[in-house]
């Protein structure tokens, strides 16, 4: 058998496996039940979507109330293929498209979607997706017209972003019981935070008679100056990149990195930082927070300090020290803390379906818009009304026992169906009450929602110019950050390092391209000044 025959046979076998169907546990499709002759008139539609690792669609059709609701409400037979996002997901999707077994609607990364569009496999959305056909999607989720424009490929409408949560759950957390020991307030300024770090590092906050605690720890993963160091925001640098006063800024290559490095070096010299921070992985930061080795950490985990989350750092720390009390705080209440989330993966439609049976796409659009509205959001996020949650006015109360029994223990399958309903109940003016949440939890969650200032994202999808290696540039950048911290022990060489990054490693070209792409999306001139 020659090479071409082997490739052909491999594709055919893979396509056959996908077409045959299997549960997600076996790595693939979960088809609808045989609905009898009366259902043969229903339109059969197929979706290829990502789900959380470990999530499974129910084995028994009657257990899948989301699928059942969709099929009855829209008179369809819905076939779902679901895998965790990643290379394997992309490979399976590519095989399905190339084999002629194309799903009608699917989700994938921006990079792969662009390639599929260029290969002629994707339908234009213009006949199907609009404010008239998807009013919920445009009203509640797709409120940024610039963003939609930035998703165009070759000047045309082939893809649209999935709904997404605008704000993150980033926060600094501090041991309030340690603050109480020293009669210190929860910090609201950089200086108050440093004072807490000093006391935590030098004055035995855990009372064990040993000098074994530090004010702050983070993870450098053996390669980078973590953006969780508070010195970044002190000098007006936040997020990965942002636009301010019509100028594009890349945080980690900015000229102000010199000030960040010098202040970080001073904090390290003062003994306020866990000496292992540079080699720490994220899980080691969590371990040290649990063990009481550091008094301030930075985390994106909304459950970090919640009593109601059994695996939270708060509960693990309390198991070792019943007085442990982690609370969020913001030392920069008047400064931007981060940018809002940017849109992520797009959804797309098969050109084959559009050419052969466009009714399938029109029906998919109806269903997606229903999922984008409050009714679909509640079903795919919290389950069935009156059974898995109750609603009084704008307050949603989770019925925990039924939720665990019918959803979590049956594959946690809502994490597959919630691809079009991100965890953002505030979008519909709703608040959610978990019966396990304590008043302390509610206070923490309220702070996470309101205690940090988020500014709009750049509002555009950005890509480096052709032939430029973004990864190589970032690697060299991180190398120079580490050199200043551990070899130079000074930021004096940053102007020289920065110039090399800008010119030799093409950072200037990359960021000028980003600024141009943002300018096009915003319809106004955005500049990048390499010599800022």
What does this protein structure show overall?
The chain has helices spanning 3-20, 65-74, 87-98, 110-118, 135-141, 145-150, 176-181, 190-202, 231-234, 257-269, 282-291, 313-320, 351-356, 358-372, 374-382, 400-406, 414-417, 439-450, 470-488, 494-503, 507-522; strands spanning 29-30, 43-50, 76-83, 105-107, 160-161, 171-175, 214-216, 241-244, 247-250, 294-299, 326-329, 336-339, 346-349, 389-392, 395-398, 431-433, 453-455. The chain has 532 residues and is α/β, with parallel strands linked by helices. A six-stranded mixed beta sheet has the order 1-3-2-4-13-5, with helices on both faces. β2, α2 and β3 form a beta-alpha-beta unit.
Count of separate DSSP helical elements: 21
Shape: globular
Low-pLDDT stretches are: 1-39
- Strands of the widest sheet, in order across it, are 1-3-2-4-13-5
Helical coverage, percent range: 40-55%
- Taking all Cα atoms into account, the compactness measure Rg is 26 Å
């Amino acid at each position: 058998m020659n090479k071409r025959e082997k490739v052909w046979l491999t594709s055919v076998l893979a396509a056959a496996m996908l077409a045959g169907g299997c549960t997600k546990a076996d790595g693939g499709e979960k088809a609808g039940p045989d609905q009898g002759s009366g259902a043969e008139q229903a339109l059969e539609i197929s979706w290829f979507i990502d789900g959380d690792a470990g999530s499974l669609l129910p084995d028994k059709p009657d257990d899948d109330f989301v699928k059942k609701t969709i099929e009855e409400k829209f008179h369809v037979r819905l076939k779902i293929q679901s895998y965790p996002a990643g290379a394997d997901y992309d490979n399976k999707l590519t095989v399905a498209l190339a084999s002629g077994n194309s799903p009608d609607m699917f989700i994938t990364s921006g990079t792969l979607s662009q390639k599929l569009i260029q290969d002629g496999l994707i339908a234009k959305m213009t006949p199907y997706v609009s404010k008239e056909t998807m009013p919920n999607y445009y009203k509640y989720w797709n409120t940024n017209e610039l963003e939609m424009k930035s998703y165009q490929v070759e000047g045309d409408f082939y893809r649209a972003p999935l709904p997404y949560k605008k704000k993150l759950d980033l926060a600094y957390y501090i041991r309030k019981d340690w603050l109480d020991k020293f009669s210190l307030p929860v910090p609201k300024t950089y200086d108050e935070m440093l004072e807490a770090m000093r006391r935590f590092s030098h004055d035995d906050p855990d009372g064990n008679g040993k000098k074994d605690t530090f004010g702050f720890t983070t993870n450098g993963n053996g390669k980078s100056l973590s953006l969780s160091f508070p010195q970044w925001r002190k000098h007006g640098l936040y997020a990965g990149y942002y636009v301010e006063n019509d100028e594009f800024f890349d945080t980690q290559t900015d000229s102000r990195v010199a000030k960040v490095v010098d202040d970080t070096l001073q904090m390290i010299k003062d003994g306020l930082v866990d000496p292992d921070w540079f080699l720490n992985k994220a899980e080691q930061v969590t371990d040290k927070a649990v063990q009481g080795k550091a008094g301030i950490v930075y985390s994106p985990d909304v459950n970090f300090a919640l009593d109601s989350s059994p695996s939270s750092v708060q509960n693990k720390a309390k198991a070792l020290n019943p007085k442990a009390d982690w609370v969020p705080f913001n030392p920069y209440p008047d400064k931007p803390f981060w940018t809002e989330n940017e849109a992520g993966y797009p959804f797309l439609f098969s050109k084959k379906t559009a050419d052969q049976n466009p009714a399938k796409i029109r029906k998919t659009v109806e269903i997606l818009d229903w999922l984008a509205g409050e009714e679909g959001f509640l079903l795919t996020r919290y389950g069935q009304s009156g059974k898995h949650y109750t609603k009084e006015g704008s307050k949603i109360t989770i019925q925990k026992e039924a939720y665990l029994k019918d959803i979590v223990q049956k594959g946690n399958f809502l994490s597959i169906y919630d691809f079009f309903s991100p965890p953002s109940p505030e979008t519909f003016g709703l608040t959610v009450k978990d019966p396990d949440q304590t008043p302390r939890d509610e206070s923490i969650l309220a702070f996470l929602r309101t205690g940090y200032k988020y500014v709009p994202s750049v509002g555009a999808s950005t890509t480096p110019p052709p032939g430029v290696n973004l990864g190589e540039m970032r690697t060299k950048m991180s190398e120079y950050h580490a050199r200043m911290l551990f070899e130079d022990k000074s930021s004096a060489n940053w102007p020289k390092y920065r110039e090399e990054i800008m010119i030799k490693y093409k950072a200037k070209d990359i960021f000028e391209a980003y600024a141009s792409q943002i300018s096009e999306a915003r319809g106004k001139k955005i500049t990048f000044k390499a010599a800022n």
